[in-house]
Amino acid sequence: AKGGGKGRWCRYQSELHTAIVQRLELRTALAEAVERRSFMVEYQPIVDLYSGVAAGFEALVRWHHPGRGLVPPDQFIALAEETGLIEQIGDWVLREAVAAAGRWRQDRDPSATPYVSVNVSARQLRAGGFVDRVRAALGAADVPPTLLMLEITESLLLRDDDQVWAELTELRTLGVRVAIDDFGTGFSSLSYLQQMPADVLKIDRSFTATVASSRRQLLLLEGIIRLAGTLSLDIIAEGVETEVVRTLLMDMGCALGQGYLFSRPLAEEDANRWGPERRSP
Ligand code: C2E
Ligand code: CA
Ligand code: CA
Ligand code: CA
């Protein structure tokens, strides 16, 4: 080997060692967090682009780490999936989010109650009994199934797992809606999309972000929106950060969006109070 040699190898070994130790520490801490329920849920408005009113809120989990503060899900969901802890975390998020929807329902005009949208991982759907858990959560909070949406990633649906499809179909029969999350990052064929047990397409933010600068992306998105219309699927565009993008989306007939232009994820009470900024005429 050229330059570096032994010194570099040792450094590599010690970095590897540190990484493994950190991972083990994180694993232990996550298991403890599940015991202590050191999580919280934030809610990001899903906004009617034309009126600015929140149609619903996406529930996004955060971990209150004793030393590190709030840990974003990107840093622990994968680990929770690997270890199976996602089953407990996910079930907790589901009950918490449905309970929040119940409180919004009490505080708001019943005809304008926003729905809550919950991310569901592969493992939760495969563990068995998921439909019963959803029913229990709705029953405990006295929330109608129509106020719940479940977000399932496109890649999970593409695996064409009979059990998963059957559960989602049953939930839709109850009135729960299903959204395909991160749409545009997988490779759904059009005929497949037509068969999927889903009501809503969520356009991934990597896709949304480029529509203002790339004509190709814009045309693609326009095609997807038209197709969704044909299949009676609603569309939610993620990652709407600018008025330019919002306007482009509205021009293409996309009615719903989510992103920092409107709001970051909020604590439950702030979500309940959240309303569109009043614009001067
Ligand atoms: P996701 O489902 O695609 O959620 C959207 C992510 O984009 C959220 O990050 C949100 O805060 C962020 N975001 C929203 N608007 C904007 C924007 O305008 N610009 C940018 N740059 N980002 C925006 P977050 O909260 O860190 O969540 C990351 C991922 O973690 C989620 O991606 C989801 O896949 C996963 N996740 C979150 N909560 C749960 C949960 O309860 N269960 C499971 N299984 N996964 C979860
Ligand atoms: Ca999501
Ligand atoms: Ca998403
Ligand atoms: Ca995404």
From TrEMBL:
<feature type="domain" description="EAL">
    <location>
        <begin position="23"/>
        <end position="279"/>
    </location>
</feature>
<protein>
    <submittedName>
        <fullName>PAS domain S-box-containing protein/diguanylate cyclase (GGDEF)-like protein</fullName>
    </submittedName>
</protein>
